[in-house]
Amino acid sequence: MTSTAFSWTALVDVAALADALQQGGARVLDARATASTAVRVVDARFSLGDPQSGAQAYAQGHLPGALYADLNRDLADMGKRGQGRHPLPDSADFAARLGQWGIAPETRVVVYDAGDGSMAAARLWWLLRLIGHRRVAVLDGGLAAWQAAGLALTAEVPQVPALPPYPGQFDRSQIASAGEVAARLKHAPGWLLDARAGERFRGEVEPLDPIAGHVPGAVNRPFALNVHDGRLRPAADLQAALRPLIGTHDPGQVVLMCGSGVTACHLLLAMEVAGLHGARIYADSWSGWVSDSSRPVATGP
């Protein structure tokens, strides 16, 4: 395959990843590879309807050298209350997990899931950025694109020597709080984008959370609109669609949310690819917002 240049900070295509693994040979996939030479591939497949299915699918077959990250266990702290369905893990716990995965600041990381990156590759991508790691990209099209290219999977689980905890901590300035969201409710629309499907945003259905609707003033941008055939749309198309939604707001003043702070990360990925840099995530998202009955709720378009 011919390598395609990429930055290791947003998206990587199948050809580029395959070339990186092939060019590195055993040095890249060998468990003894140093952090500065290693490409760590992480499988983040997950299904909200069947939380065990991702790990089971990983055991049946995954990209060569890939480790597995579980959304509920590794990318969230399910013991926290009042912070939505997927509360953020503690920074120290996530740093320790990265060390166990052999990820250091110099390590190049590629994360993937079954397809478009929304469940939950983009979540891991964002958490890595949150702790200060920049050499991380989502595999565009995920495992489906890898298989469509005729590339092999393996059931072999790599043995990666553990490193010390990652030397960083979450940058809390990249996380919007419920208090900030509440304080900005009367701002001009465009500062808050909700990545859920339209019917959930409008309050017509709510399969996961106790209350239907959306934060008053939020603008709906279903994350699925940013995808075509399982891959992110071209940067120019994404910018043409997303820029009008935020209006006069600088991208750095924009907050993104969803149901539990997972697909909002996919919307952030789309904005970064579109060149609209600096948006932040309301990590508690809708499930956290409605945990307090005093917060206002809107329905309809």
Strand order, largest beta sheet? 1-5-4-2-3
Biggest β-sheet: count, sense, barrel?
Answer: 5 strands, parallel
Q: Tell me how many strands there are.
A: 12
Number of spatially distinct domains: 2
Q: Whole-number radius of gyration?
A: 19 Å
- Helix count from the secondary structure assignment: 12
The parts where pLDDT drops under 50 for at least 5 residues are 1-6, 25-33
Mean pLDDT across all residues, rounded? 93
Helix/strand class: alpha/beta
Q: What share of residues are in beta strands?
A: 5-15%
Query: Terminal Cα separation, in Å?
Result: 46 Å
| Coarse morphology | globular
Helical residue percent? 25-40%
Per CATH, the class of the largest domain reads: Alpha Beta
What does this protein structure show overall?
The chain is 31% helix and 12% strand. By secondary structure, the chain is an alpha/beta fold. It has two domains: 11-170, Oxidized Rhodanese, domain 1, CATH 3.40.250.10; 173-289, 3-Layer(aba) Sandwich (Oxidized Rhodanese, domain 1), CATH 3.40.250.10. The strands form three sheets. It has a five-stranded parallel β-sheet. β7, α9 and β8 (219-220) form a beta-alpha-beta unit. α6 packs across α11 (263-273). The longest helix has 12 residues, at 235-246.
